[in-house]
Write a structure and sequence with these properties.
heterodimer; A: about 350 residues; alpha/beta; Rossmann fold; 2 domains; seven-stranded mixed sheet; five-stranded mixed sheet; 12 helices; 14 strands; about 20% strand; globular; B: about 400 residues; five-stranded parallel sheet; two-stranded antiparallel sheet; about 50% helix
Chain lengths: ~350, ~400
Amino acid sequence: MTTDTTTPAGAAPGTAAGPAPVTGAATALETLTIAKAINRALADELAADEKVLLMGEDIGSLGGVYRVTEGLKARFGADRVVDSPLAESGIIGTSIGLALRGYRPVAEIQFDGFVFPGFNQITTQLAKMHARTRGAATVPVTIRIPYGGGIGSIEHHSESPEALFAHTAGLRVITPSNAHDAYWMTRQGIRSQDPVIIFEPKRRYWLKGEVDVSADGHRGVSAFQAQVVRQGTDATIAAWGPLVPVALAAANAAAEDGRSIEVIDLRSLSPVDFDALQASVEKTGRMVVTHEAPTFGGLGGEIAARLMERSFLHLEAPILRVGGFHLPYPPSRVEEQYLPDLDRILDAVDRTFAY
Amino acid sequence: MHHTPTSPAPATELPEGAVRLLDADGTLHEDARFTPYLADLTEDTLQRMYRLMSTERRVDQEGTSLQRQGQLALWVPAVGQEGAQAGALTALREDDWIFPTYREHLFALGRGVTPGQLLALFRGVAHAGWAAEDHRMQPYTLVLAAQALHATGYAWGISRDQAGWDAERRLAEGQVVLACYGDGASSEGDIHESMVFAASYDLPVVFFCQNNQWAISVPAATQTRVPLARRAAGYGFEGVTVDGNDPLAMHAVTAWAAEQARTGSGPVLVEAHTFRGGAHTTADDPTKYRTRAEEEAWAAVDPLARLEAHLRATGAAGPDPDRFFADVAAEGEELARRTREAVLAMTGDTVAPLDTVFETVYAESHPLVAEELAWHRQWQAGFADTEAEGDRS
């Protein structure tokens, strides 16, 4: 069976409805870590569509360096959960060829910093294939990349290169922040007819949450929409992936000072759900965007610029950014000083009130 | 040992062990291993081979003229490589796949791509002028060696689709993929990775290296110390260097290689030792880096002349060889005329508008692209109003 829809029935692209209420009968809530939720999503897609196959370094017998694919080789066989040679360009390039043949490859890149040997294949080939063939070729390749810092690791294991891919037309880029989204966004990403890069917040792999794994557990929410994860009236914090829990903690801390902060989880970085961001900032008048990637040239700047065009007269203060510095990712003993944290986000929130 | 790349002497001399069946004067030799693969070469196929080579060369010359006249942004001559391509193409089956670089004009025309579709890329009206599925040939790839991985992945898909087939069925119905590259691209990592993947999973890939001696201005000696086919051994499969200006040897060795790949033995590398007779592209100037003597040495072993001599000597050109060659020349002129006509017709309203790119960058709707397309259309519509006013005045 090959599926060809990305947007589940009832989803309203371009809006952020907030966590949709559970309607109808069957829900099947399971408490899973993000890693297990992704594992479950991969298993469900492998089971649903025989054209889906996984490939990557060490994803078979070992189950991946983060064990995200644990057990899948045993269940689906070495032909569908493929331990590939150690070659990222080869993984992406052969995935393109497999997709041209009608397969639906899900490639794992072991770490964020290791995607660059495959960068050429992703940006000059995968991203352009549909347009250069005037729509004749579809290449529904999914690329999973654990990303971000805060895990005390060594060089090249803590980076956030999402802007490089969001900048490239032809790619979709999504990043879940919780187990429920990890499950559904992974499934929706695999089912998309476009190339989708899923940035997985590796420092949150063990974050547990309730996942509705019932057939309509997605509740009509597309992987390419933002979600308001905390309602507020005075300012908005926009975040994604690993910083969503930090943004929520900052909002809770601000509440103690009597400020009502709305938090938006972008979830999708290409497309960005500007309608949801606009609705929020026009309600609150203030916004802080935070990401681990360097601020300069980052998506925070793009979001600020777009919202200034859309919502200039609603803004009480400039949209502020809290991100990484213009540095190579530092040695992990000092990464705490590099990564946006609760205090730096709160400081920016304070500054938006000082205007 | 330090190795200093030097500008090579004319390399018309074949590397040791290279396969040549047809001498420059058209005499055919026996080869215990590869001659049997000429068994299917009927008079019709030999004539087709020559026709493809001759008419492609004429289209190729027209491409250069059209570029010189400002009608093409660029042209990529393949003069001198017709024998390598005609031999290989006629050894493949119609449903075998070709993943080309950007100099496989004979493959394209031989697979039914029209001259207009072939030149659309160089006219600047499309990135891919033809539909791959219609010709079992992917569009040209300009980031060299990327296509070899796509070919390998595609062959992986074929291999999966044919899982469980016995040898007989594979031989009868199996598909193979021809992964094209050249001496320059052989240095790219993607060629290495392709060969690793193809070997690891026994994929039905024929790596088809046209070693035309020059990667723009850099000689093959800078890319490799050894004949490129010898690299295959490092990956655990067989590689054969062939006289690329010998269409019959190219046919036989490619047929053998395709049979190996088709029946499940995994990849094979065929290196065509040939020469880029023209410039790299119309933007190139070979006088800056190679000698007239080298070009003349290679012109003396031109594949077209060699096949013509063979056809005349064996009677394969039919009862009236002069008539056959005159007819083919006339076909070439006709194809050149159609080429020119098609190129000149690609203008104005026949050129797909920018809207087409907006509409095909994603397969599913993307709000940013939709927003920008709406803006673009409105902006363009504004000019239409202005033009209409201009018309009235």
